[in-house]
Amino acid sequence: KDEAFQDFYDILARQRHNKKKFYRGKNIDIEADIRLLSARVLGECSQPEVVEVLRKTMLEDNPELQQEAVDALARLTLDTPGLTETLGPLNSLLHMGTSELRVASARALGTLGNLACLPNLQESLADENPLVRSQSVMAMAQILERHTDKLLWEQHADTPAAIPVASARAQDEADTIEQALHAMSERLADSDVGVSKAAALSLAKLNRLLSAGKTRDDIIERLINAGFIGEGRQAREMGQALRALDPGAASDTLIHHLDTLSSSIERRFVLEMLEEVFRPSQAA
Fold first, then answer.
1. Residue of 239, 233, 237, 236 lying closest to 254 (CA atoms)
2. Domain map of the chain by residue range?
3. pLDDT tens digits for 38-50?
4. What is the pTM of this model?
């Protein structure tokens, strides 16, 4: 083990038997404060022993300490042995505890990037807290973005009949991804503007996964509809997302809407989206 982190490791691994009081009448748990700092520091030490102690720390009945452990796990290098063993606790914490802990768990799951976590993150899109919904959308996008090249290869690879297991796995992944994209697109109509914006930006990053067809067309329509919400407050932001996703298909759809809308206010929102779709990209 790295000697530079040994003291922090020992502190965090220690059971809480030595609670101390700072001054008489002030119940300050110094041991807990030190363990919080230790969890924070251990996020820079990518070792299997650290993963295990952080995993155990996530199970303690201390939300603040749990959150530090979750954040520390998200900072470890992705090839650290034992990280997959933390997915179970993280998926559980995503649906319990404080909103801050749920947000931290969603963020960590996005960083760890395991495709199997998509369905659980999808469930958290219904969380009562908009910050949890926003972070869950972004985490799903982060996972999908990390696996884009692999997923695209599987979509276009010729799968020999001799390996049906691989074919079935690829089909399961494709179904999971389609469900995830659909769930993310539904958040475009979220009652919270921040969630809607997070969904738009996330979907725009995944344009390579959205082959031409019903899924892409559906997301374009949902982005446009989101541009009308709240008296058009997000029209330009949705237009920017449309430009990143598919400017050609988006402009065609917007022009069609322009010809069918009877309200001058709604036409103005469409024109704002079109303006963003046709806006030249900023030079690097």
1. 239
2. 1-97, 113-154+164-209, 215-284
3. 555 455 556 677 7
4. 0.76
